[in-house]
Each structure stands twice: as structure tokens, then as C-alpha cells.
């Protein structure tokens, strides 16, 4: 029925279904085996070993694939040949190992490798187990003073506070690292001798004195209130300036142009403002007074004159000159200070007056971040640094004053400060220009020296220990002990004072008689004793006592015979001898008494149980017999019996840890380095790589 | 002519035929000259076993380095290497035998442990021997002319000959009213306690002759004894034992201790051992005031008593000629020795605990080696010795009637033939005692007390940490605290003080027996078999298991629920913590400086 139904329903289908049906029917007839039904959908089952042709029953042959290859003319003959060989080859590849097997092999290999790896630790572990004392952390810096570079180079901001401070310092471009002295500096420190230092100091003193004179003079000049004086001064200066300007026009046109530009600027400003146009409060008052006062009139006149002068048109300077000027201004001051001046004695950097090789920028102050290689090196460097720092600040804040001083150094006649604030700006520009001009001209060098000196003036003289000094010291030391060597033979044992003893003697007793009479008295004594102790025989009593003790100490026989068991019992019947012998338990013979060979001594055999509570009841681990243990226990450890040092050594803790230090687990590199050095390290590195690879593979899988 | 050599704490030298003490540089000088080399100075190599070749090599290397290395000044070290230690000194501090390590040890661990401990003890030994150099005082002795006996020299002569301070150490106290006197010196040797038979007790700082206290207890006094310090002393009176303080104020009357005749104080155990007329030996712990043990000796009246300072064993002499040795831990004597044919009159033990000297009614004086319990010498004294005492340096004083004789080399090689010194006092001698750290023998007799100068009696070098004769009050107080902390428990008293460091070899049965005795029941005894009331087939083991299995999933559920809950809780906690941390994280480290 079923078949019919199917047939009806799918009658429109093709023969395949029909075949299927037939198959099903045939399978009903006993043979259970059912042919594998293939599905026609493409590549549902894709094996990595064989390519199945979609739907087709037969397998793909190589020749099917290569047929086209041979037809193509482009393929090289070599590959064709290879392919042909391949086709001819009838051998089949071996089946790959099963998953379980491969994994097993991999496991064994991995095990071997890891055992090898792990066994490398063995010696270290044993060593540590055996060690009397372990000190943690393992990597400890050696005690004692360290070189400053080591300390600083290895330092890192660790705590949050440190990091915070560190970041702040960074943001302010404070020096943090690389504070070590350069070889140049070291050489400088080495080369500094006492004489040179003295000369240097004298020079510095002189320069400082000169500077103070100049400063005093300038101050005096500034304080003069006479207008006339200042006017004269100013006029002179202007004249001078003009002269120079004329010169400059010839020698250095760019600078001149700059000056001109400045003048142009001032002109612009003048034109913008009402400054000199007699419109201010003061000018108005002057105007009222002008009728009567000659000076007021002249003052007004002056003002106007000034205005006119300032508003006079000038030649406009070119652009690139402007740029250059900007550059120069940007450079400002600081660099010239540290520029080295060629000095004949170049071997001595100190004498060249160069502070440090890295004098420019914030690097200089790095030196100050740490106090140098040694004390000797530290002081001068820090001094220099401080000096520079201060100087930089000054430069930023009051350029004007600094320049003033410099110029006053240069030209003694010049007085730079004006009373009038109005003219201050012009003066400044003038001096700026003057200064720049001077910079550009060949006369720069002496000024540099001056500047250097100016800052060095403030620096105190630092005594530097030189090699000469060291030698001298060495001599002293050599001389010292030789003088101080004490004569070991000075101490001679003092002779004993011998005084005559008093010769008075009194004989009260004759002790000679006490013991020497023994031989005679012995016989008498014996009789006496016998007489005295005739009644009580001390010795026999003692012996009796002893025997009693011995008896008590002997182990007793235990009789466990029960009459009537296994044989007849009743009144008058005794257990048989055999039975008695069987049930009498004889204890083992007691060990010989301690007083066995001492007739006049009874030694108690009782065990001292009270001390047993404090004794070791079982042999502790490493020992094999009690003799070993007892030999290890024989010497006391306490302070009562040992010297202080010994006690300290004997009671040293097994593990020492540094308080607060992190104890890192032992790294492989540590002990390998200890062991062999580079070779061992290499060996260690190879398997490491191998394992890593393996790990990757696994991951990819 | 009279020559007296008198060293000691008094540091007094009158005349001396002795060489001045050898100094270290002299030894070295001798070595340098090549004389006396290898005679008494042994190289260190002897002491190092062959199993330590590395160590030896190291040492050699060091020595080489030192010998080659010169000072910066260019000078050469005249004494390269370690200073050698004389063998005698090493022997002095030797403790036990060295363990002979067999090379073919099976286990490395043992070998290593032993080697290490050997090295440690070697170090300790060497250091101790080296530090012995710091004990420069030597004891001297009295030396007569060729045909002169030192025993004929009178105390007055000695006192005249020596300096004033030392001469003042010979003095007599005429106390005829309450005699005869027993005496005791404090452990520092500064204080003297006198107890007259008729009730007179006085404490004297005998060197300054300063009377600390003087009382009359109006009772018979049998014995007096200082306790651990000079602040307290015990008096054995007619009936009870009393304890007084240094001002003579009665602190305790201990009625548990009655009819005490003799007393001994064990300083390291803080034990006062008393022997009574009723035959009881009792121990009183003076630090806590408790009786440690009371032992009925059943040996009659106990009026002869001594202690072994080495192991704190009490020696008792009995009328039947035996000497018994007692510890508080055992109710029977540890050892009983028959020493005399008559009763024992007096006995004393030397400081090292090696020798015991006894005198008996048979008028014999016997010297015993109490390690082997064997008599070394036996002397006959015509009058017998009533009181014996041994000094720190091993001088024996024996009182016969009113004469006190002092013997030297009591246990030396040959037998002694005549006394070293002798002194006659005014009455029968009742007690003799040497003053520690002084060359003085105190004699209590019927007519008072005599302090006798005995050159070479006292130990010249004292251990200030143990007993300092010159200690201040503060030091004494501190010492007292320390001593109390270091107090040795009475359980540790035994014949062999080194027993503590040995393995208890007792068998299991022995131990078990002791345990049963101590507990009063057998903890290992198996319970008597009791047949269990069992219901039929209901609760066989299998059924129980099956029943359990039925409800096992319930338990499992519970546990799972619990673990899940716990995990949730933990997670929550962690979250909270993380949040807190995040909040804290916004704070910078510099915020702490803000206000």
C-alpha cells in the first residue's frame, strides 16, 4: 500500500526515484546492506585528501586534469615531464597518523623538552636548599657607597609622588637625566691646579673690583639732577652716534638701515601721538607762562623742534634686512656668553673660560641635578650652573641694565641713562643698535671676555684638590706613619720590687705531724674503727641494700598458666610441666647494671622521666643515628657560652629579607649567568624560542 | 726568708719569683725566632677534618694573600695570618668529641649538616679560646724558702707582708656570746652572713667591715644561707625555716620546712634545698615560693650536705658511711656510695663537679671522682676533719678541732703529704667557707669568726655577666631580672646535665608506662567489645549508601547555590572596590600637600 501511495504521489519524478524505490524493495529481501546514498549537492562533503566530483560516482583521475595541460602550448616542458612522472607513479602516500597518535608523539616531545628545561633549575634549587642563609631579594646592589652615575642612571620615578614631581620637572624642562660629567669636564677638574686657581682668583677679584667701580660711576651719573649736564651728555652722545652712524653707513649698511628703520618707527609713533605738540597739560601751563618766562618759551620751542625732528621722513629699509634684524633679536644675548674664545692653551678648558661643553640650553643645569662624580667635581659644576641660571633670568627680565653695564665697560666716557622718561625708548633703541653694531663688528671678542668675567665675578673661588695636592697628601701620609711608628720595645716589663720579708716566726702548731703520722696510726686506727663499729657492720648493710636493688631491677617471670584448661583440673592436680613451660613468659634479661663493676656504689636504674619531656624522642630527619645528632648538639649556642660574634653567626636567620623590597621570583637569566656566562645563556635561549614557536602553532590551530 | 706570691682579684704582687704573665707578643716573638715552634702551638689544620679540603685550601689561600699582601704604606705584616691559639686553651673550651665523618656517606644531607655544625662548634671553640686572652689575671700562691714549710707561716706575717687592703682581709671577730658560728658568703663574695648557734645573725659587708644588719632570732640556728642575691637570706632555725631581707626583717616563715639542719642554694635553679633532722630533703623554689619536691630519704638525720655546682645534684652524708646523691625529680637516691666505715662528717664538691671530698668518723679524708664514682685518694687524719670546703681554685680546707688546714693539689698526681697552710682558731670550728673571687677563707668557730688569707684560693677572673663582685645596685637589679629569665627548671636537674641534648632512647613500652603513670589511665587501651544492637537488614552499609544517593542531588544543589551566591558576592565586592579605586585614582599624589 505504501509503495503504491508513493508511486502515486511522485509519479511525475524521474527514473532516479524509481531506481531508489527498486533498491529499497531489493533491500527488503534479506540483504540489509544499503548502498550509500549520494547527494547531488555540490561540495557539502569536502575531504582534504580527495576531490569528489559533484554527483558523479567515479573519481577524478589525474589525467582528466592534466589533459588540458598538455594541450596548452605555454606550459614548460619541464613541468610536463614532472607531471608525466607523477602520472606514472603508482605508489600511494602513506596514511597520515591518527590524531591520537600525533598528539601522543607531540606530548612526549613536549615532555622531554620541558623536563630538560625544568631540570636546569635543579642545581639551583639544591644549592638554595643547602645554603645556610638565603638573602632576598636576589638581585641586591652591593652595599657601600655607589658611584653617583650608577645611582642616577638607574633611578626611575616609581611612586606616584615621584612621578608627579618628575612630570612637573619635565614640563619645566628641568634636567632629569644624563647628569654625568663629560670627559671634558673631568679633564677640566683634573687639570685645575692650585696656582692656576690662585691666578684665576686674582683676575676675578680685579675684574670684580673694576666692575664695581664702573657701576658706582654709572650710578653717580644717573643720580645727577642737573638738566644741563644731561643735555650736554645727550648732545655729545647724539653727536657720537651720528658720527658712528656715518661710519656705519660706509662699513655696515645693513645695521645702518636698521637704525634707520628704528628711526622710522619712532617717527610713526610721533606722528600718531600728540606727545610733542604742546597739547598736554604741562604744555598748556607752559603756554600761559610763555609770555613771561623765557625758559618756558624755549621749552615749548624745544618740544616743537623735537616733534619736527622726529616726524622727518626717512628712507624705508628693505624687507630682508628686517628679517635679519628679527633673527638677531631672537638670538638676543645668551649665547655669546658661553662661546669659546680661542685660547693658546687649549688643553686647559678651565682657562678657556668655557663653563661646560653643553653650556647652551637647559642641559647645562643637568649637571646640577646630581652633585657630580665626586665632591671635587661637584662644587664647581654646581657653581657654574647656578651662575648661568641666574644670568638667564636676568637677561629675560632686565636686558637693559645688563647691556648698560656692558657698554659702560666698553666705553668709559658714555653715560647711558637719561632723566627724561620720554626719551627712554629712543635711548634704548639707540643702545640696542649700538650694541648690535658692536656685535657685528670685529670687536666682539673683548666684550665677550668682559661678559664672561662679569658673571665669573660673582662666582666664589672653590678650592679644587689637584693632583699636586694629592701627591703632597700622599707624602704627608707616608711621612706620618713612619714618624708615628711606636717602638715596640719601649715597653719592658718592670722589674719586680723585692723587699725583704719580715723574719719573725712563731710556731704555734706543728702541722707536719698531721699527715706524716699516717703510717704509724693506720694499724691503730683500724683497731679503733673495729672497736667503734663492732655492732653495726656498715659494709654488709650496704651490700644487702645493693642486692635488694638488683633484685628489684630484674625482670620478673609472668606465669599465665590456667589450671584446668586443656587437661584435667581439680584439687591436688597441678598443670603439667609442659603447659607451665609454655605459659611462663620470660622477659628479656635486663641490661647490665651501671654499678656492676662498682661494689661500693648503687646507681639507680630508674629513668629520669621529667627530663624526657624536654628531650628529643625521635631522631630528627637528616640524622641516621643518635651519635650524629648528639655531635651536632654538643656545642651550645647561647650568649653565656659563646662570644658575641659567634652567637651572631650561629643564630643567623635562615632567610633574610630586605624590609619593603619586592622579592621577585628567580629569573632564569640570574642563575644561568652565575653558572657559565654567555654559553649557558645561549643554551637557554634556544629552547625558549622553540617553545614559543610551538605555542604559536597551537594557537593557530 | 719569706716569699709570698699573691695574685688574685686584689691584684697584689709582693714578691715574685714567677715570671710576669706571658703576653701575646712574646709568644709571637718566639715563633719568629723559630724557637718553641710547634711545641704548644698547633696549626689549625689539625682540627679540620679531611672532608673539608676546600676550606683548607681557602684558608691557605687567605694566608698566602695576607702574607703577600702588604699595607699601603709598603710595610709588610710581621704577623701574617691568624694569630695561633695554643692547644691548651683550645682544650679548655673543647666540648665533647669531634664526630668522625666517614667519607662515604650515603646521604649528602647528613654529611652537610654535620660538617656545618662541626664548623660552627669549631668556630665557637676557637673564638672562646681566643677571647681567653682577655682574662689576664693569674692566681699565685705562697712560696716558702728551701727548707721552710708554708704551713708554718702565720697569718699575722702574711697580713704584715701584704699591702694594707689585703692585710685587712685577715681579721677576727670575737663573738663569744652566741657562738659557735655558721657562715656563708654571697655569690659575689662581698657579703658575709654569720649565724650563731644561739640566735645571732649578722650580715656584714666584710671588706668594708660594714654591718648591714644584726639581729637575734632568739632561737637555735642550725644554718644560714644567702639566697640568689644579698637582699635575702634564709635561716634554719629551731623549728622552721625563715627568710629575712638584708635589713633583718622577717619576710617568710616557712612551716613546711621544719627542723632544717643544712641548706644549699642552687643559684641557677633558684632552689633552696634543705635537709632536715627528720630525714626530709626538700626543695623550695625561691622565685615563686613553692615547694618543688619533698623527698623522705629514710636515711635518718641529715646534717651533712653539699651541692654539686656542675649539675645541681645535692649530696647528703649519712651516719652509715654512705653518701647519697639526689635530684628533686627522683624519690630515691640517684647514687648511693659507701665512702666511710663510720658516719660521714663532712663533704664537699669541687666547682667543676668532678671531685668530691669526704671526711668521716673513721678519720679518713677521701677524694672521689664522681664521674666514675671511684675513690682517687684516701688520707688519714689523726683527728678527722669536721668541716670541709673547696675553693674555686681547688684548695681544700679541713677543720680538725680548732685547727684549720689548707691543702693544695688534693686530686693531683701524687698524694699530698703536708698541708699548704694551717691556722689555729680560738674554739672548735663550726663552719668553713671560701670567699668567691678572693683569697680568703672564712672560719666560723665557737669564739666568733676568723677571716684567713689563703693565697691562690680565689678565681682571679670573674665573669661579670654571671657574677660581678663590683656590681652596682642597678646592675644587681638588672642581673636579677636576667637571671630569673634564664632560670633553669628543676625538671632538668639530673646526673648528666648534657642529657638534654641527647635523643631519648627509651622504648615505646617504657614511655607508655610512664604516660600511664602520669595520666592515671591508659589512653591507648582498647574499649571492651560491646555487641552493637543492630536492626535486621535495615541499615547495612550498602543500604545507607543507597539512601544517601537518593538525596544526594539535594545536597549538590545546595552547594552549587552556595558557590554561585558566593561568587556573586565576591564580584560585587570587587566592583565596589574597583569603583572606590577609580575614585581614588583621580586624586594625584601631590594632593596630600593641599589643604
UniProtKB/TrEMBL annotation, chain A:
Record's compositionally biased regions (Basic and acidic residues): 669-679
Q: What is this protein called?
A: UTP14C small subunit processome component
Any single GO CC term annotated in Swiss-Prot or TrEMBL for this entry: small-subunit processome
* Region of interest (Disordered), residue spans: 315-428, 472-512, 669-701
Family that this chain belongs to: Belongs to the UTP14 family.
Record keywords, A-Z: Nucleus, Phosphoprotein
Query: What lineage does UniProt assign to this protein's organism?
Result: Eukaryota, Metazoa, Chordata, Craniata, Vertebrata
**InterPro entries linked:** SSU_processome_Utp14
User: Which superkingdom?
Assistant: Eukaryota
Compositional bias of type Basic residues: which residue ranges?
Answer: 690-701
Q: Which organism is it from?
A: Electrophorus electricus
Give TM segment ranges.
Answer: none
Kindly list the biological process annotations in GO that this record carries.
rRNA processing
List the biased-composition ranges (Polar residues): 489-501
Where is this chain's protein located in or outside the cell? Nucleus, Nucleolus
Automatic annotation (TrEMBL), chain B:
Q: Where in the cell is it found?
A: Nucleus, Nucleolus
Region (Disordered) spans which residues? Answer: 33-87, 532-595
Q: Which residues form the BING4 C-terminal domain?
A: 419-497
The entry's cellular-component GO terms read:
90S preribosome; small-subunit processome
- SMART domains under this entry? BING4CT (SM01033), WD40 (SM00320)
Extract the Pfam families matched here: BING4CT, WD40
* Coiled-coil stretches noted in the UniProt entry, renumbered to this chain: none
Quote the SUPFAM superfamilies the UniProt record gives.
WD40 repeat-like
Q: What GO terms describe the biological role, i.e. biological process, of this protein?
A: maturation of SSU-rRNA from tricistronic rRNA transcript (SSU-rRNA, 5.8S rRNA, LSU-rRNA)
Point to the regions of Basic and acidic residues compositional bias.
48-61, 552-595
Per the record, the major location class is nucleus
Q: Which UniProt keywords apply?
A: Nucleus, Phosphoprotein, Repeat, WD repeat
**Functional description taken from the UniProt entry:** Scaffold component of the nucleolar structure. Required for localization of DDX21 and NCL to the granular compartment of the nucleolus. Part of the small subunit (SSU) processome, first precursor of the small eukaryotic ribosomal subunit. During the assembly of the SSU processome in the nucleolus, many ribosome biogenesis factors, an RNA chaperone and ribosomal proteins associate with the nascent pre-rRNA and work in concert to generate RNA folding, modifications, rearrangements and cleavage as well as targeted degradation of pre-ribosomal RNA by the RNA exosome.
Can you say what this protein is called? WD repeat-containing protein 46
Organism field: Electrophorus electricus
Amino acid at each position: 500500500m505504501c509503495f503504491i501511495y508513493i508511486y502515486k504521489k511522485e509519479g511525475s519524478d524521474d527514473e532516479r526515484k524509481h531506481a531508489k524505490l527498486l533498491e529499497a524493495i531489493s533491500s527488503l529481501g534479506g540483504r540489509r546492506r544499503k548502498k550509500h546514498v549520494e547527494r547531488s549537492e555540490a561540495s557539502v562533503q569536502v575531504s582534504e585528501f580527495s576531490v569528489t566530483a559533484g554527483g558523479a560516482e567515479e573519481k577524478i583521475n589525474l589525467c582528466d586534469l592534466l589533459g588540458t595541460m598538455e594541450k596548452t602550448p605555454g606550459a614548460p616542458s619541464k613541468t610536463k615531464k614532472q607531471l608525466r612522472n607523477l602520472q606514472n607513479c603508482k605508489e600511494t602516500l602513506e596514511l597520515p597518523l591518527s590524531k591520537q597518535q600525533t598528539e601522543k608523539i607531540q606530548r612526549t616531545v613536549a615532555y622531554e623538552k620541558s623536563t630538560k628545561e625544568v631540570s636546569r633549575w635543579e642545581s639551583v634549587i639544591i644549592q638554595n636548599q643547602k645554603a645556610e642563609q638565603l638573602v632576598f631579594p636576589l638581585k641586591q646592589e652591593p652595599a657601600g657607597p655607589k658611584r653617583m652615575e650608577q645611582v642616577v642612571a638607574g633611578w626611575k620615578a616609581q611612586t606616584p609622588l615621584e612621578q608627579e614631581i618628575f612630570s612637573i620637572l619635565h614640563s619645566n624642562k628641568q634636567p632629569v637625566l644624563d647628569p654625568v660629567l663629560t670627559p671634558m669636564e673631568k679633564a677640566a677638574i683634573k687639570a685645575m691646579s692650585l696656582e692656576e686657581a690662585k691666578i684665576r682668583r686674582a683676575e676675578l677679584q680685579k675684574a670684580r673690583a673694576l666692575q664695581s667701580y664702573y657701576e658706582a660711576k654709572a650710578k653717580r651719573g644717573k643720580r645727577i639732577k642737573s638738566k644741563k649736564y644731561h643735555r650736554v651728555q645727550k648732545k655729545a652722545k647724539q653727536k657720537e652716534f651720528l658720527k658712528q652712524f656715518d661710519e656705519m653707513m660706509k662699513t655696515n649698511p645693513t645695521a645702518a638701515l636698521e637704525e634707520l628703520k628704528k628711526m622710522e618707527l619712532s617717527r610713526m609713533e610721533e606722528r600718531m601721538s600728540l606727545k610733542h605738540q604742546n597739547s598736554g597739560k604741562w604744555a598748556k601751563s607752559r603756554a600761559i607762562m610763555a609770555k613771561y618766562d623765557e625758559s618756558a618759551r624755549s621749552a615749548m620751542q624745544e618740544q616743537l623742534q623735537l616733534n619736527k625732528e622726529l616726524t622727518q621722513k626717512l628712507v624705508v629699509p628693505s624687507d630682508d634686512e628686517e628679517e635679519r634684524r628679527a633673527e638677531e633679536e631672537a638670538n638676543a644675548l645668551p649665547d655669546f656668553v658661553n662661546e669659546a674664545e680661542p685660547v693658546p692653551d687649549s688643553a686647559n678648558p678651565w682657562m678657556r673660560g668655557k663653563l661646560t661643553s653643553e653650556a647652551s640650553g637647559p642641559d647645562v643645569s643637568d649637571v646640577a641635578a646630581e652633585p657630580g662624580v665626586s665632591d671635587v667635581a661637584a662644587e664647581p659644576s654646581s657653581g657654574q650652573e647656578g651662575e648661568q641660571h641666574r644670568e638667564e633670568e636676568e637677561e629675560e627680565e632686565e636686558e637693559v641694565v645688563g647691556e648698560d653695564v656692558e657698554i659702560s665697560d666698553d666705553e668709559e666716557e658714555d653715560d647711558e641713562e637719561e632723566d627724561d622718561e620720554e626719551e627712554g625708548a629712543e635711548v634704548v633703541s639707540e643702545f640696542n643698535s649700538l650694541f648690535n653694531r658692536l656685535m657685528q663688528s670685529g670687536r666682539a671678542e673683548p666684550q665677550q671676555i668682559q661678559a664672561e668675567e662679569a658673571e665669573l665675578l660673582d662666582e666664589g673661588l672653590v678650592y679644587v684638590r689637584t693632583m699636586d695636592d694629592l701627591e703632597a697628601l700622599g707624602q704627608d701620609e707616608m711621612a706620618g706613619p713612619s714618624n708615628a711608628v711606636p717602638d715596640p720595645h719601649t715597653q719592658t716589663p718592670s722589674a719586680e720590687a723585692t723587699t725583704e720579708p719580715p723574719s719573725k716566726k712563731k710556731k704555734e702548731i706543728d702541722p707536719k705531724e698531721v699527715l706524716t703520722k699516717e703510717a704509724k696510726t693506720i694499724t691503730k686506727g683500724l683497731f679503733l674503727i673495729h672497736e667503734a663499729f663492732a655492732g653495726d657492720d656498715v659494709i654488709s648493710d650496704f651490700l644487702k641494700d645493693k642486692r635488694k636493688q638488683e633484685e628489684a631491677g630484674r625482670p620478673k617471670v609472668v606465669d599465665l598458666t590456667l589450671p584446668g584448661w586443656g587437661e584435667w583440673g581439680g584439687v591436688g592436680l597441678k598443670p603439667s610441666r609442659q603447659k607451665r613451660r609454655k605459659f611462663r613468659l620470660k622477659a628479656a634479661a635486663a641490661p647490665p647494671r651501671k654499678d656492676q663493676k662498682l661494689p661500693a656504689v648503687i646507681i639507680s636504674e630508674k629513668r629520669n622521666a621529667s627530663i624526657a619531656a624536654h628531650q628529643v624522642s625521635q631522631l630528627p630527619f637528616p640524622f641516621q643515628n643518635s651519635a650524629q645528632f648528639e655531635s651536632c648538639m654538643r656545642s651550645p649556642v647561647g650568649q653565656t657560652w659563646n662570644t658575641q660574634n659567634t652567637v651572631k653567626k650561629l643564630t643567623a636567620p635562615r632567610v633574610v629579607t630586605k624590609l619593603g623590597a619586592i622579592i621577585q621570583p628567580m629569573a632564569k637569566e640570574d642563575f644561568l649567568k652565575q653558572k657559565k656566562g654567555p654559553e649557558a645563556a645561549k643554551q637557554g635561549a634556544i629552547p625558549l624560542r622553540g617553545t614559543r614557536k610551538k605555542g604559536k602553532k597551537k594557537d593557530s590551530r | 726568708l719569706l716569699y709570698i706570691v699573691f695574685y688574685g682579684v686584689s691584684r697584689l704582687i709582693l714578691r715574685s719569683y714567677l715570671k710576669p704573665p706571658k703576653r701575646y707578643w712574646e709568644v709571637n716573638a718566639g715563633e719568629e725566632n723559630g724557637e718553641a715552634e710547634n711545641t704548644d702551638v698547633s696549626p689549625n689544620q689539625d682540627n679540620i677534618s679531611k672532608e673539608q679540603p676546600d676550606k683548607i685550601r681557602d684558608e691557605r689561600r687567605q694566608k698566602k694573600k695576607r702574607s703577600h699582601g702588604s699595607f699601603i704604606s709598603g710595610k709588610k705584616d710581621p704577623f701574617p695570618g691568624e694569630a695561633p691559639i695554643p692547644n691548651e686553651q683550645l682544650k679548655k673550651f673543647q666540648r665533647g668529641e669531634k664526630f668522625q665523618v666517614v667519607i662515604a656517606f650515603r646521604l649528602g644531607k647528613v654529611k652537610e649538616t654535620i660538617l656545618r655544625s662541626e664548623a660552627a662548634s669549631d668556630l665557637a671553640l676557637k673564638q672562646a679560646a681566643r677571647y681567653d686572652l682577655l682574662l689576664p689575671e693569674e692566681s699565685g700562691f705562697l712560696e716558702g724558702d728551701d727548707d721552710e714549710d708554708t704551713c708554718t707561716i702565720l697569718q699575722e706575717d702574711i697580713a704584715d707582708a701584704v699591702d694594707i687592703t689585703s692585710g685587712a682581709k685577715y681579721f677576727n671577730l670575737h663573738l663569744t656570746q652566741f657562738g659557735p658560728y655558721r657562715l656563708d658568703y654571697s655569690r659575689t663574695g662581698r657579703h658575709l652572713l654569720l649565724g650563731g648557734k644561739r640566735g645571732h645573725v649578722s650580715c656584714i659587708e666584710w671588706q668594708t667591715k660594714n654591718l648591714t644588719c644584726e639581729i637575734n632570732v632568739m632561737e637555735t640556728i642550725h644554718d644560714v644561707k644567702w639566697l640568689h642575691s644579698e637582699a635575702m637570706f634564709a635561716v634554719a632555725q629551731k623549728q622552721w625555716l625563715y627568710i629575712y631581707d638584708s635589713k633583718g626583717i622577717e619576710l617568710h616563715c616557712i612551716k613546711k620546712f621544719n627542723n632544717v639542719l643544712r641548706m644549699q642554694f642552687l643559684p641557677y635553679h633558684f632552689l633552696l634545698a634543705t635537709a632536715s633532722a627528720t630525714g626530709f630533703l626538700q626543695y623550695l623554689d625561691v622565685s615563686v615560693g613553692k615547694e618543688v619536691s619533698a623527698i623522705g630519704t629514710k636515711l635518718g638525720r641529715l646534717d651533712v650536705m653539699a651541692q654539686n655546682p656542675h649539675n645541681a645534684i645535692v649530696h647528703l652524708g649519712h651516719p652509715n658511711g654512705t653518701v647519697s646523691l639526689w635530684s628533686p625529680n627522683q624519690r630515691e637516691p640517684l647514687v648511693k656510695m659507701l665512702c666511710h666505715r663510720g658516719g660521714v662528717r663532712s663533704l664537699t664538691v669541687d666547682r667543676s663537679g668532678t671531685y668530691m671530698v669526704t671526711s668521716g668518723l673513721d678519720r679518713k679524708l677521701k677524694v672521689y671522682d664522681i664521674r666514675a664514682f671511684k675513690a682517687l685518694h684516701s688520707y688519714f687524719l689523726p683527728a678527722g676533719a669536721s668541716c670541709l670546703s673547696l675553693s674555686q681554685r681547688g684548695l681544700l680546707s679541713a677543720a680538725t678541732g680548732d685547727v684549720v688546714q689548707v691543702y693544695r693539689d688534693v686530686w693531683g698526681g701524687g698524694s699530698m703529704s703536708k698541708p699548704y697552710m694551717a691556722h689555729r682558731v680560738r674554739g672548735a670550728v663550726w663552719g668553713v667557707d671560701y670567699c668567691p673571687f678572693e683569697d680568703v677563707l672564712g672560719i666560723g668557730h665557737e669564739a666568733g669568726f676568723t677571716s684567713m688569707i689563703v693565697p691562690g684560693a680565689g678565681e682571679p677572673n670573674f665573669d661579670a655577666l654571671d657574677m660581678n663582685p663590683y656590681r652596682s645596685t642597678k646592675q644587681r637589679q638588672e642581673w636579677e631580672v636576667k637571671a630569673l629569665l634564664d632560670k633553669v627548671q628543676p625538671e632538668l636537674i639530673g646526673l648528666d646535665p648534657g642529657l638534654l641534648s641527647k635523643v631519648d632512647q627509651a622504648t615505646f613500652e617504657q614511655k607508655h608506662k610512664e604516660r600511664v603513670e602520669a595520666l592515671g589511665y591508659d589512653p591507648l587501651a582498647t574499649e571492651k567489645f560491646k555487641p552493637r544492637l543492630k536492626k535486621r537488614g535495615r541499615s547495612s552499609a550498602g543500604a545507607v549508601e543507597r539512601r544517601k544517593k537518593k538525596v544526594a542531588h539535594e545536597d549538590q544543589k545546595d552547594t552549587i547555590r552556595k558557590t554561585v551566591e558566593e561568587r556573586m558576592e565576591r564580584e560585587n565586592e570587587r566592583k565596589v572596590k574597583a569603583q572606590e579605586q577609580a575614585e581614588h585614582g583621580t586624586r594625584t599624589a601631590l594632593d596630600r600637600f593641599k589643604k
